[in-house]
Amino acid sequence: MKTLFIIRHAKSSWEIATLNDFDRALNERGKKDAPIMAQRLLDKKITIDSFVSSPAKRAKKTAEFFCTSYKKNKEDIIFISALYHAELKTFFEVVEQLDDDINSVAIFSHNPGITEFANQLVGDARIDNIPTCGIFAVQINITKWKDFTKTKKDLLFFDYPKME
């Protein structure tokens, strides 16, 4: 059994209009929401074996907040450039290439791709938008990640900061 947590980066800043999109940092709300959402997972006794992220600053910082909450090394985050504004196909490829020793993984990325990916996973769950720092969790009855695409996935939960 494998578990996938799809996490959209926390709220980012638009303070510097000329800043390259890739380099946008988290705003104050984002810095507050990321540890809160990580704690919600910890409160549910959820373990995460691996953290995979887009290297964009806002996704990277969100992943780092989760690592800190989980008392994991930030240096162990796996950064995959293709997750920056990834297309649907890219998400499936990234998941299918995960090491089979990983049983639960959190993937940090961006909209619109992350919402599109979530909507492809579970037939009975349709969401319009994964909000910033939202978590879409699915469980998959597989032992090898390469079987991810063709196997039925079950929604565990969908949570986001304003869902209190």
Q: Mind explaining what this structure looks like?
A:
This protein has 164 residues and is an alpha/beta fold. It has a single domain, classed as Phosphoglycerate mutase-like (Rossmann fold). It has four helices and six strands, in the order βαβαβαβαββ. A six-stranded mixed β-sheet has the order 3-2-4-1-5-6, sandwiched between helices. Helix 1 packs parallel to helix 2. The chain is globular and about 45 Å long.
Question: Short description, anyone?
Answer:
The chain has 164 residues and is of the alpha/beta class.
User: From the structure provided, what is the oligomeric state, counting identical versus distinct chains?
Assistant: single chain
- CATH homologous superfamily, by name? Phosphoglycerate mutase-like
Radius of gyration: 15 Å
Q: Could you please say which CATH topology applies here?
A: Rossmann fold
CATH class category name: Alpha Beta
Distance between the termini: 29 Å
Number of domains: 1
Q: What is the percentage of strand-forming residues?
A: 15-25%
Number of helices: 4
